[in-house]
Amino acid sequence: MKEIPVGLLGFGTIGVGVARVLLDDGKLITRRVGAKIKLAGVADIRRGPRKGVKLPKGVFTTDALSVVDDPSIPIIIELIGGKTVAKKLVRRALERGKHVVTANKALLATYGDQLFRLASRKGVNLAFEAAVGGAIPIIRSLREAFVATQMTSIFAIINGTSNYILTEMTQRGTDYREVLAEAKKLGYAEADPTFDVDGTDAAHKLAILVMMAFGAPVTFSRIHRDGITGISPLDMAFAHEFGYRIKLLAIAKGDTSSIEARVHPTLIPKDHPLAGVEGVLNAVYLKGKPLGESMLVGHGAGMMPTAGAVVADVVEIARDIIAGCAPHRAPMRAWPEKSFRPISIRDIRERSGPYYMRIAVIDRPGVLSRISGILGAHRISIAQVIQKDRQVDGAVPIFLLTHEAVEKDLLAAVRKIDRLSMVKGKTAFLRIEE
Amino acid sequence: MKEIPVGLLGFGTIGVGVARVLLDDGKLITRRVGAKIKLAGVADIRRGPRKGVKLPKGVFTTDALSVVDDPSIPIIIELIGGKTVAKKLVRRALERGKHVVTANKALLATYGDQLFRLASRKGVNLAFEAAVGGAIPIIRSLREAFVATQMTSIFAIINGTSNYILTEMTQRGTDYREVLAEAKKLGYAEADPTFDVDGTDAAHKLAILVMMAFGAPVTFSRIHRDGITGISPLDMAFAHEFGYRIKLLAIAKGDTSSIEARVHPTLIPKDHPLAGVEGVLNAVYLKGKPLGESMLVGHGAGMMPTAGAVVADVVEIARDIIAGCAPHRAPMRAWPEKSFRPISIRDIRERSGPYYMRIAVIDRPGVLSRISGILGAHRISIAQVIQKDRQVDGAVPIFLLTHEAVEKDLLAAVRKIDRLSMVKGKTAFLRIEE
After folding, report:
1. Which end of chain A is more exposed for a tag (fewer CB within 10 A), N or C?
2. Which residues of chain B lie closer than 8 angstroms to A276, CB-CB?
3. Which residues, listed in sequence order, are joined to residue A77 by a DSSP beta bridge?
4. pLDDT at site B392
5. Is A335 an 8 Å CB contact of chain B?
6. A315·B148 Cβ contact <8 A
7. Cis bond leading into B71, ω under 30°?
8. pLDDT computed for residue A328 by the predictor
9. Chain B partners within 8 Å of A339 (Cβ)
10. Which chain A residues touch B315 with a CB distance below 8 Å?
11. For A173-197, what is each residue's pLDDT tens digit?
12. Looking at the domain covering A348-432, what would its CATH class be?
């Protein structure tokens, strides 16, 4: 029986999951692969046993380089996270002609282009199914199943923490802060959840999806992102009343020459397939030709589901090794490296679509007429309006849905509205996608 | 630029779609594959032009053998359908050492085992993504993404015609026959829809899913199937009232030693992810370790989505050819041929779970007590009961939900209930899955 040794860098939650899959389910994997995937080295700066797994003797080390540089190990799994040590070790492994499997979306969204080019030159694979949507087979599907499809749009729920928070806020009418505190207790939010709730993590993943779907390298810093911290239970309740749900969506639309790419809380109709994706589940909803529409749903995080995706990448590389395939049988990022072309990202100020607005006003005659006058002057027409008589901080909220409008017009109108003496605080708005 | 010639057998709807993808989107595919997939031969018994596509000169023939036997063509696409000519030509192509791509679920569900063994001996691939769930990448995902997962259950909506009919019946409260007539007009049901509405088509596909998920050959004739023809608007309305939806589900549960495998209309809770899969969409919902839960949704049929899946299989084989991989880099049916093991299929009479029952009774005192007495004597306890006073054919319907019960007990109880003088007609029952 052929053995394929693998080295594991980072023995935290996912690392322990990977070790458990390889050690506990080794027989299943060996039966399916026709070779044994052997955990030959595990490196972490923290010593000591980990719950739920017992490594074979001599496998653990605190010296990551001894694993990366071991000439008998052809596949390195990077689960350290972050962009410093991880980057150094991934580069080193690739330089030494080793295949790398990683779940590190921040690393790929920031330095992906140079790392994929390096892997390409060295004739090795850099695989990353677990980096986007955890156990959802979206990376593989974009590379293989959807190879004949020209994507036109991607809508994705790819941050479990924010989806959990929004789901709880919707179902229980609770406040953002209250749900966040609970999510931390339950382990669904990290101690510092900034990157999850401000859209950064989703933007990292969207950069990777865009790269795969449109054949273009996109640095995540060019992706517009708004977080969920400003969503109030009022927004939730009125979205509900209008027949919508609020989800933090990563959105890309366009073709291989220019796209929109943005992450923000979005109103979607309650019968949209993504509206029912609740809690910590993730989902990617795609449209394209000839595909039509497709949606993939699953666990976006969590020790065992993510570990399963990491091991699937290891198996794929092992199968290429066993079958003696030339490097990059299937292109790492869905398009051959030499066919990657720059893509222009449209300014979000040019975004066109309907909007939801919440304006806090002092209830006096003529206020709605003033507001609709300003909107009209900016080519924005009102589709629906609801005014409630419930006072919040001495003002009443007006809720508006607009017809299709251009974002820069909306921004200009909001600036003028917020200068009215009868308007209190800042007007909140959210984008609607149908 | 390297060229990979392909031959196409069957120039009907999907065949035309494949030709359109290869001819119209050829540049996209060439860019992604790094080689040109060339449509070298197209065979059909029916001559004449097809709408929406113009074949290059000299490509069309009525002589399928001239395509299958052409030594310059390494990949044959079979889209003839049926189990006679298609089987003969697929066998012949495999015998001649050609890779075959097919969308023919009936062929694979019936003769798959011998065909895969032949392909295995000949060192060629038999690929079939489009055979189950059309554009949904379920076959590929079972083979690659979920390679480390031991599946525990599969619930699938894999017949678009019946899902369309049930969706329309639910949403509009219409009768089965009325909706079927409409579906035929709209092209969502064939002139003879028997195999779609009686569960045969879904059972074909389930046989393939079981083979992939559990590593066992399963002949479809061993799969229990009930169709949707007996579902009445009354069932729909009351399922709704109890918080359920009725879907024709293909279900497999178990492990690599024994499974349940069945196709039948099923009550599922209205917040189950499959409950929202409406119209002609298909979906496969999976559970396993370490995967957790996952669902893949998309077009299960239709010219262009299905054609996209066929072309993805062609590309995968082309990539293996270009990279010079040894045969069967990834096992055709997810597990290496030599690792396939028989699996025992549990008798549906041993199925255990809750049931829905509809009993037509003459409304007189004591009827419910007689019925519940019979159920109790067969170890069946009632969870909920609703009796309506609306008369249908001189009787009133009683609707029951049971707690967990064993099917053979239920069948025995139903036989006794149907013998009661106060019971009219045959008692209908449906399985509930939570």
Report:
1. N
2. 271, 273, 276
3. A8, A101
4. 72
5. yes
6. yes
7. no
8. 95
9. 31-32, 34
10. 144, 147-148
11. 899 999 999 999 998 999 999 999 9
12. alpha beta
Alpha-carbon distances, residue B276 vs A171, B136, B202, B229 (angstroms): 18, 17, 19, 21
Q: Which pLDDT does position A394 carry in this prediction?
A: 81
Which residues in chain B are contacts of A17 at CB distance < 8 A?
290
Partner-chain contact B298 A298, CB within 8 Å: no
Q: Which of B32, B294, B305 sits opposite A298 (nearest CB)?
A: B294
The question of whether A424 is a catalytic residue gets the answer no
Which residue of the set A87, A98, A105, A205 is catalytic?
A205
Q: Is A299 on the interface with B (CB under 8 A)?
A: yes
Q: In chain B, which residues fall in CATH 3.30.70.260?
A: 348-432
A172 touching B (Cβ < 8 Å): no
**Amino acid in position B157:** I
Residue B85 sits at the vertex; the CA angle it makes with B83 and B89, to the nearest 5 degrees, is 110
R_g over Cα of chain A: 24
Look at residue A35 in the predicted model and tell me its pLDDT. Answer: 93
Write out pLDDT tens, residues B248-261. 999 999 988 899 99
Task: Mark which residues 147-166 of A lie under 8 Å from B by CB.
Answer: 147-150
Say if the Cβ atoms of A148 and B308 lie within 8 Å. Answer: yes
Q: Which of A138-147, A392-401, B31-40 has the lowest mean pLDDT?
A: A392-401
Residue among A17, A291, A324 whose CB faces B305 most closely: A291
- What does the pLDDT look like over B166-195, one tens digit per residue? 999 999 989 999 999 999 999 899 999 999
CA distances from A331 to A117, A127, B33, B340 (A): 12, 10, 8, 30
User: Measured between CB atoms, does A34 come within 8 Å of chain B?
Assistant: yes
Q: Which CATH number applies to A138-299: 3.55.40.20, 3.90.330.10, 3.30.360.10, 3.40.50.2300?
A: 3.30.360.10
Numbered ranges of CATH 3.40.50.720 in chain A: 3-134+303-339
CATH superfamily membership of B3-134+303-336:
NAD(P)-binding Rossmann-like Domain (3.40.50.720)
10 Å Cβ neighbour count for B62? 11
Token reading at A335: 């398009």
**Residue A364 has what pLDDT?**
84
Residue of A nearest to B32 (CA): A335
Subunit contact B21:A148, Cβ cutoff 8 A: yes
Q: Do A297 and B297 touch (CB under 8 A)?
A: yes
Residue of chain B with shortest Cα separation from A275? B276
Q: Looking at the predicted structure, is the pLDDT value of residue A369 above 90?
A: yes
Fold classified for A3-134+303-339: Rossmann fold (3.40.50)
Question: Has residue B304 got a pLDDT over 80?
Answer: yes
- In percent, the amount of chain A with pLDDT more than 70 equals 100
Amino acid identity of B226?
Answer: D
Predicted ipTM of the assembly:
0.95
**Tell me, what DSSP letter sits at residue B54?**
-
On the question of pLDDT at A66 being above 90, the answer is yes
d(CA A180, CA A75): 38
Q: What confidence tier does A222 reach under pLDDT thresholds 50, 70, 90?
A: very high
Kindly state the average pLDDT of the residues B322-341.
Answer: 94
pLDDT digits (tens, 9 = 90+) for B242-291: 999 999 999 999 988 899 999 999 999 999 999 999 999 999 999 999 99
pLDDT at B56: 96
**How is residue A51 annotated by DSSP?**
T
Sequence-distant (≥ 6) Cβ neighbours of residue B110 within 8 angstroms = B83, B204, B219, B220
Give yes or no for residue A109 having a pLDDT over 90.
yes
Beta strands in B226-336 (DSSP E): 244-254, 258-269, 281-289, 292-299
B276 to chain A: which residues are within 8 Å by CB? 271, 273, 276
